[in-house]
Amino acid sequence: MEPALHELWAESRDLLGLPSPSLDDTAAAAAPRVDLPPTPLAFLRDHVSPGHPLLVSATSLWPATSYLTDALRFTVVSLHLTPDGRADALASHPRRPGSSSVRAAADDCLRGEYAAVAGDVDAHVPWASEALGCLPEAVNLWIGNAHSITSFHKDHYDNIYVVVSGEKHFLLLPPTEHHRLYVRNYPAAHYVAAEQDSEGERQLRLKLEMEEPERIVPWSSVDPCSASPEEMAVQASSFPL
């Protein structure tokens, strides 16, 4: 059965115009980069339909590095605090075996709680909207620091991701590799802030709590950004990519 599955896997990659490396070939191919946006037809034909990523060079959208701070100075916004910067990932619950899924909101926040700056960016990306045949259903603004990590996951929509400031590193799998996400069901959880005494001082700690009533979330079991070589070896053995 395994040779037949491997042949089917290779044929599906070939149909999408993807290389078919051997199973032990882990070399990553860089996404193509262009200086100007593609035409809607080219974007649909060469990238959307076969599931190929594309990098489009762009200039900064912010007029100054302090723009966001100044524009939202008096705006109340929500924060998703975690001990390690993983706001959308699996975490071990101390009183429950296995892992729990810690979720962050993706709720069209640019046009919601960040509406003060929404007018300073285009409402949509015209060449992408024409290629996809619709306007964006949601426009989110993600703000993080060097510790912020988004876990392995599968989006149900085509995405246009704009890096406004800093860097964002992506590890992408083609559509043919969906099985390598090892999606399983996990109970949803979230962190809550709690004060604790530490050497005579009151300090704010984050406590992981399960959602009530219980909500089950299908999520990837893979962590390709493990903190140590030992953890990476366990991941590679349990969930081979």
Overall structural class, as computed from helix and strand content, comes to alpha/beta
The helix-strand sequence is HEHEHEEHHEEEEH
Low-pLDDT windows of residues: 23-28
Tell me, rounded to a whole number, the average pLDDT: 81
Tell me how many strands there are. 8
Supply the CATH architecture: Sandwich
Using the coordinates above, name the CATH class: Mainly Beta
| Through-space gap between termini | 19 Å
Number of domains: 1
Helical proportion, percent range: 10-25%
Domain JmjC: 114-241
Region (Disordered): 221-241
Pfam families: Cupin_8
Family: Belongs to the JARID1 histone demethylase family.
Brief overview:
Helices cover 20% and strands 22% of the residues. It contains six helices and eight strands.
Please tell me about this protein's structure.
It is a single chain. This protein is an alpha/beta fold. It has one domain: Jelly Rolls, CATH 2.60.120. It is built from six helices and eight strands; from the N terminus they run αβαβαββααββββα. The chain has helices at residues 2-15, 40-48, 67-71, 115-118, 126-132, 229-238, and strands spanning 33-34, 55-56, 86-93, 96-102, 149-150, 183-198, 201-210, 216-220. The strands form two sheets. Strands 3, 4, 5, 6, 7 and 8 form a six-stranded mixed sheet that branches. Strands 1-2 form a two-stranded parallel sheet. The longest helix is centred in the N-terminal third of the chain and has 14 residues, at 2-15.
Pick out its properties.
single chain; 241 residues; alpha/beta; Jelly Rolls; six-stranded mixed β-sheet; two-stranded parallel sheet; 6 helices; RmlC-like_jellyroll; JmjC domain-containing protein; Cupin_8
